[in-house]
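ok new one. same drill as before - C-alpha cells go in, u give me an amino acid for every spot. 220 of them this time. try not to just spam alanines like last time pls lmao
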C-alpha cells in the first residue's frame, strides 16, 4: 500500500503539471472575448465541473473501459494529440476575422455549455496526460477495498487540482491584464506553438507506443 500523503502530493503535482492551467489562460480568454465577468465565472465553473466528472468517471471505470473496448492508451494519446495540434495551430495562426475561436461571443447558454465542455474540459483540462495520470495512479492501488484511504487520497488530490484550476480561470483577466494587449497576443501565439508541439509529441509517442504494442518495432 502506497503512503496516502505521498499519493496525494504526487497526484496533485502531476495533474497540475500535465494540465498546466496557466497555459490555458489565453485560450480561455479568447473563447470568452467580449463576455462579462459573470459569464467568465459560469464557464469556468462548468468547465471544472465537467473536468471533475470526467476525472472521476475514468478514476472508477477508465481501466475497465479500455479493456472492454480494447483501446490502448497509445490510441488515446494520438487522438488527443491531434486535437491539441488543431487548437495550437489556431492559436498560433489566428484567422483573418481576428479571433482564434468564434464561439462564446453571442453569450447564449448553449454556446457556453459547448465551450465549457470542448475544448476547455476536454482536451485542455482533461486530456491524454490527465487520463494517463489517473489510470497510472489507480494502478498503484492493488486492492481498492483494503487500500480505500489511498483511493481517497487520489480523489482529494484530483479535487484540489481542479479547485486550483478554477481559481486561476476565475482570475484569468487579472493575471492576463498585467501583460497588456500585446503581451496577451504574444502569449497566445507562444502558447499556441507549445500546445501544438505538445500535441505533436503526444502523437509521436502514441505512434511509437502503438508500433511497440503490435511488435512492429522492438520495445524497450
Amino acid at each position: 500500500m502506497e503512503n496516502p500523503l505521498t499519493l496525494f502530493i504526487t497526484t496533485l503535482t502531476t495533474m497540475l503539471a500535465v494540465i498546466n492551467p496557466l497555459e490555458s489562460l489565453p485560450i480561455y480568454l479568447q473563447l470568452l472575448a467580449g463576455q462579462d465577468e459573470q459569464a467568465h465565472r459560469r464557464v469556468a465553473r462548468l468547465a471544472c465541473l465537467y473536468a471533475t466528472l470526467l476525472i472521476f468517471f475514468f478514476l472508477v471505470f477508465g481501466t475497465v473501459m479500455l479493456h472492454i473496448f480494447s483501446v490502448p492508451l497509445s490510441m488515446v494519446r494520438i487522438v488527443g494529440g491531434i486535437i491539441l495540434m488543431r487548437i495550437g495551430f489556431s492559436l498560433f495562426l489566428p484567422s483573418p476575422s481576428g479571433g482564434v475561436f468564434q464561439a462564446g461571443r453571442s453569450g447564449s447558454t448553449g454556446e457556453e455549455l459547448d465551450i465549457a465542455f470542448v475544448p476547455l474540459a476536454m482536451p485542455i483540462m482533461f486530456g491524454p496526460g490527465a487520463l494517463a495520470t489517473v489510470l497510472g495512479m489507480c494502478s498503484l492501488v492493488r486492492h481498492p477495498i483494503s487500500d480505500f484511504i489511498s483511493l481517497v487520497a487520489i480523489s482529494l488530490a484530483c479535487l484540489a487540482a481542479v479547485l486550483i484550476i478554477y481559481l486561476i480561470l476565475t482570475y484569468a483577466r487579472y493575471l492576463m491584464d498585467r501583460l497588456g494587449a500585446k503581451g496577451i497576443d504574444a502569449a497566445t501565439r507562444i502558447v499556441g506553438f507549445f500546445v501544438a508541439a505538445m500535441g505533436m509529441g503526444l502523437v509521436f509517442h502514441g505512434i511509437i507506443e502503438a508500433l511497440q504494442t503490435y511488435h512492429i518495432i522492438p520495445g524497450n
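The first helix runs from residue 4 to 19. and btw Residues 4-213 form one domain.
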